[in-house]
Amino acid sequence: MKHKEKDSCAILEDLKESLSEWPGANVYYRKDWECDYFNVTGKFFCLSMDNPLHGPIVTIKGLPADNELLREQYEFVIPGYHVNKTHWNSIKLSESTFSLEELRALLKHSYELVVAGLSKKVRQELSDREVGREK
């Protein structure tokens, strides 16, 4: 079943709520880019926007081989909009058949890839936040 365009806002809100579980993750509207900017310590791991050609999209980081595979398997997954097309995919939400759980998993993987690229010190600080939250 395809997501309806009217459901895209609800999907995005659910994805935003997931961030509360991930240390250092937050989202804000970035006016200069006209998108919701999902980031961890200032480095983005997802962008969501209303694309003039494709409607609502989310752009998520992934491993190059995984990105290619997703594009081959799903017509609603396209090379990342306005980002490095090797490392990023955009998902057309109004055509997507991904469940909310699948979208969350892709978003979480994107977050983890960005965190892995942070300095050891910053990763440790994020890990300490997570441990503090579990107590």
UniProtKB/TrEMBL annotation:
A UniProt-annotated Pfam family: YjbR
InterPro entries in the cross-refs: YjbR, YjbR-like_sf, YjbR/MT2646/Rv2570-like
Top-rank taxon, per record: Bacteria
SUPFAM superfamilies the UniProt entry points to: YjbR-like
The protein's name: DNA-binding protein
Natural source organism: Vagococcus elongatus
Lineage start: Bacteria, Bacillati, Bacillota, Bacilli, Lactobacillales
